[in-house]
Amino acid sequence: MLDRKTLVKLLELSTSPVDAEALGAIRKCNAMLKENRITWTMLFTARAPGTPRPTPKWIDDPVTELERFFDLLAEQEPPRRRKR
């Protein structure tokens, strides 16, 4: 069984400014997941026990939905480039 408490501690350790320490923590997380046959996708998309599956939203008109999507993208500001 996956020890979530240890996984959380390792994920917190992965923010260390010491690269070797952060990398070691991530590799340990990966090893724990592999040992338990869990992927990162499975971990982050898992539903809490008893939570119903979401009802799929069917798109009536895919072209209209796609146009709305592109309109929303056009309204957003472009990302600012970082100065190096």
Q: What's the total helix number?
A: 4
Helix content: 55-70%
- Give the averaged pLDDT, no decimals: 84
Q: Give the low-pLDDT segments.
A: none
Gyration radius, to the nearest Å? 20 Å
For the sheet with most strands, the description reads: none
In terms of DSSP E residues, the strand content is under 5%
Q: Report the principal-axis shape.
A: flat
User: Which structural class matches the secondary elements?
Assistant: mainly alpha
3D architecture notes:
The chain has 84 residues and is an all-alpha fold. The protein has one domain (4-75). It has helices spanning 4-13, 19-35, 40-45, 62-75. α1 (4-13) runs antiparallel to α2. The radius of gyration is 20 Å and the shape is flat. The mean pLDDT is 84.
Short descriptors:
single chain; 84 residues; mainly alpha; 4 helices; 56% helix; flat
Task: Itemize the secondary structure elements and their pairings.
Elements: H1 4-13, H2 19-35, H3 40-45, H4 62-75
Helix pairs in contact: 1-2
